[in-house]
Amino acid sequence: MRYLMLVMSTPEDPDLRPEDAAGAPPIEAWVERHYGSGAAVLGDRLRPPQDAVGVRVRGGRALVTDGPFSETKETIAGFDVLDAPDLDTAIAIAAEHPMAYEGAIELRPFWPLGLDDAPDGAVAAADAHADGGA
């Protein structure tokens, strides 16, 4: 199962403690371990929100807006695509990422086009995890 791992910067997180950030492992170790094993298959950093562009089509015309275009205290700083056998494995991989210590990680299972539900019940598993299960 593939998961999109959104790496979030959360500078205004009231629960962030300096000792959490200080305990973060180096990113190089995470990359070597998970890209080396094949569990992470694609990833990169993203430019800051002020470099973003929004695109919407309204009335048959493409409307383009310069960023930042949303009021948020979190920004997506990067992403990785994980190939994991299940949600628990994806969570374990995400929990080892340095930004889990000083930011936040969001995992989203891929939902292949043409399917009413994600394969292997990933959506149901993700829902169960969000409700405190698994």
TrEMBL record:
Pfam families: YCII. Residues 1-112 form the YCII-related domain. It comes from the Bacteria. InterPro entries: Dimeric_a/b-barrel, YCII. Belongs to the YciI family. This is Transcription initiation protein. It comes from Isoptericola cucumis.
